[in-house]
Amino acid sequence: MTDSSTPGPSGSGSPTDRSWWGWGTVDQALSDAECTALGKLIPGAADTPLPVPDVPALALPKVRVRPPSALAPLMSSAPRDRASHTYGKAYRDVLRALAGDVSAAPDQVVRPRTEQHVIDVLDWAAEADVAVVPYGAGSSVVGGVEYRADARHGVVSLDLSALDQVLEIDRVSRAARIQAGALGPDLEAQLRPYGLTLRHFPQSFEFSTLGGWLATRAGGHYATLFTHIDDLVESLRVVTPVGINESLRLPGSGAGPSPDRLFLGSEGTLGVITEAWMRLQERPRHKASATVVFDDFHAAVEAVRAVSQSGLHPANCRLLDPGEAALAGVAQDGESVLVLGVESAHAPVDARLTELLALARDHGGTPMSGGPDGGDTAARTWRSAFLRMPYLRDALARMSVVTETFETACTWDRAPELYETVRGRLTEVVREVTGAVGTVNCRFTHVYADGPAPYFTVIAPGRRGAEVAMWDEIKSAAMDLLHDLGATVTHHHAVGRDHRPGYDRQRPEPFALALGAAKRALDPAGILNPGVLIDPTAPAFNDSKPAAFSDPTTVG
Amino acid sequence: MTDSSTPGPSGSGSPTDRSWWGWGTVDQALSDAECTALGKLIPGAADTPLPVPDVPALALPKVRVRPPSALAPLMSSAPRDRASHTYGKAYRDVLRALAGDVSAAPDQVVRPRTEQHVIDVLDWAAEADVAVVPYGAGSSVVGGVEYRADARHGVVSLDLSALDQVLEIDRVSRAARIQAGALGPDLEAQLRPYGLTLRHFPQSFEFSTLGGWLATRAGGHYATLFTHIDDLVESLRVVTPVGINESLRLPGSGAGPSPDRLFLGSEGTLGVITEAWMRLQERPRHKASATVVFDDFHAAVEAVRAVSQSGLHPANCRLLDPGEAALAGVAQDGESVLVLGVESAHAPVDARLTELLALARDHGGTPMSGGPDGGDTAARTWRSAFLRMPYLRDALARMSVVTETFETACTWDRAPELYETVRGRLTEVVREVTGAVGTVNCRFTHVYADGPAPYFTVIAPGRRGAEVAMWDEIKSAAMDLLHDLGATVTHHHAVGRDHRPGYDRQRPEPFALALGAAKRALDPAGILNPGVLIDPTAPAFNDSKPAAFSDPTTVG
Questions:
Q1: Which residues in A lie closer than 8 A to residue B234 (C-beta atoms)?
Q2: What's the fold here for domain A166-282?
Q3: Phi-psi region of A311 (alpha: psi -120 to 50; beta: other; left: phi over 0)
Q4: Is B453 near chain A, with CB under 8 Å?
Q5: Taking the model in full, what pTM does it have?
Q6: Fewest 10 Å CB contacts: which of A55, A66, B109, B289?
Q7: Is residue A19 scored above 80 in pLDDT?
Q8: CATH topology (fold) of B26-159
């Protein structure tokens, strides 16, 4: 954290403060002039950036819920707290914030400092009929932290950021007990003195928390093998409205369905994750990376398939299609780029990289650069662009450019069709919706032996005032396409509220019944993140009240 | 399958027939003379083997349930079918069968030939109040296929062995759609022409099915990385009483809690798995293995920990403690033995084996033999003993020797204490229970970066007629020990009915509520495998009927 007092581009707050409306910190956001310059690169973008409203000028709704005296010291209804906890960071969130629409603001932001505080908040909320939206650092891009229902007496945003400690380290088993509110950099800083690392680096790393990663099954650093945070979990501790759910610390188990797997991906609907024992890695001492260029994208896909099925498990294996590679500035026109990386704490990795490059060459790839310890410029260039992207997205939003990212996964047999169909059809949709020619680019973020996880980026000039409506149309079309192609609605961005239409169609109906029943059992008052994943008022949620089990005489 | 007509040692049936009372096929069982010779090796064993009852002489209970006419062609109440489907293959199962106790025999054995048959059976059973016990090949050692309740009008064993086909192969994604009733050798035979393999080889491989592996989260071939069948699942198809649950074929997903993970380990209580898309491997072309001897077991444990945390992912990494190694005939007195194996379909593996052996040497190990392609005699010797073990267990049972195997997992920090405490305390328990000096040996079957999966074998001379009671006491003491040590009640043998006391204490209470609620939602009549995993009559199962959600006005 710097101490600089250079003012941010607009809005209120000191430069290293978190932006209330957009990504990250105020000082990293693009200035008005930078936004305007960026807009000039997109034909059809607005001429001037949307202004950023000052918090004091926002028309926040009346506070309906007053804190009980025991919890009052933890609660805040300060305008900045309420405004910054109204939305996550989806495009539509940023646009609505820029429009000054904070009508869905929580009544209170509550910041527990202990697990007992979390319990007390849930007890009070159930009693007072107040919805509770668990909030890590608010990086959701799927409406995961935004309250949209209105049947409750009010809503509080449960901000877990004060629970940010690494509580215990087991160096023998290479594991640590970590509180859910720890941001990526904070938990890594606490592990570093021990030579250990969680090595989970989502794009949101700086501005997302362990608890958020666990609740949403976040995708991380590793492009193969341990792709989701799920794989790094040894045990979870979850405060549910009916009690604390703590699983044993186990390296593996076969005792019934995994308790942890019910809470991983539950997105705050079944309980509040307060801490977890996480599997750690030793810090890698050997690293090597390389960039491979392909003239033909489908040949590159075949190369990546070969890599994913080779058992070589590269840490990095990102394939950028021509549009994505051009945007990142790492390739010539029409070329696809594969970024490969290997790492180890124990042994040199050069031989493994050589084997990977041989596979790439077999499929027509040309290694361009590479070497040990990050000597690979293209990979570095791409990584820096990668971390900067959310700030650029916000700048594009201010220039009324519609941007949407969505990601999925499918098996290899369907990957070429998925790529072509989504790009082709979505390009048409963008033209229909915006009247302009947009771009639809793709990269593979994670790959498995049986298929890739393609990540699409849509960019098109919008019409001022209609950005959200356009985004909604494009998002909806993307979900329809993925559904028709049998691909998942999300590989690692979660479901939240925005992906519900796709998720509801994808989820097997008996599982919906089981999940709804579990929800009722754990959250009988239905206060936890209503509207995310499952809808308590939907038929599927209520039809599962069986008659037979009400009659004890029929129970075997 | 051979055509030999040499008669089996006793009992009825042709030699390659499955044993109705014990492991495997009749022709592989030890003869009376072999049993007697084996007994002489265990001081205190009986002088003569327990006789094997002939099926016609068994006092099977009256058949309470007659098949409806539509299902009659699928059902059998033949004595041999009923007797062979009464139990799994736990020690107590074998002993009770030898005692002629088949009082828990199912009324009917039903063998669906199509998925529609499965649906029809469940519909009929719910209507007729008949319990349904899904049955793959009956290798459960935890009471998973034995009906113990008596509140129903009857019970059928749902034998899925006719659903044994590989239905579809996707060579591009390396996956296959396989029916749940396929035995290990049968499904491998169908995959072999394509150069592919599931490579899941539990000890029960010959006599267990894909559906059984999935329902019980079986542990397989790989000692590291893809240890459980869970990791090889792309999608599941499950017939539940409320409908078919089919998940998308996906290499990975982050859309809510994993639907498949609810059914993996559900042990037939939530539905009947009828087929699955499974991730396959190419058949390995490069293999190497080696045996390392250690004077000190705890040094060997440290070596295995180093291996598990090295990222080298050996396919085999079995550590035998001195007792286990002596029993398998692969080491001198007091020595521990580590069997290491590496394999790859693509590249030579010798360098990796060399790195593994270096780690073993660093911890005081002495490589004894080894080389490419199964040149390692000790490993071969051990593997052959491993596959023969269940037959020996049956022979010991006939000599009234009490044998019990149980397996667990814990983190590395607790592994030495677990090993010493379990061996020490259980040796005392065995003396208290049997009055004799028994042996308690241990091997690690699977290892993870954060801990091992220790597998214990107890052998002690019992008292004729009291074998089951003695076994129950030892089993109960073992479960208590594991619970006190914070280790799981099972790493890959499942819960069934025998592990319920340990599982009920281990499972977090809120998860128990969620699982009970899911059970009621999917199996409203409570017909599926009653008593396994959850008890429909237990308070935890019934206390989760929330009041709030019955009142729609409070639903947000």
A1: 411, 450
A2: 3.30.465
A3: left
A4: yes
A5: 0.94
A6: A66
A7: yes
A8: 3.30.43
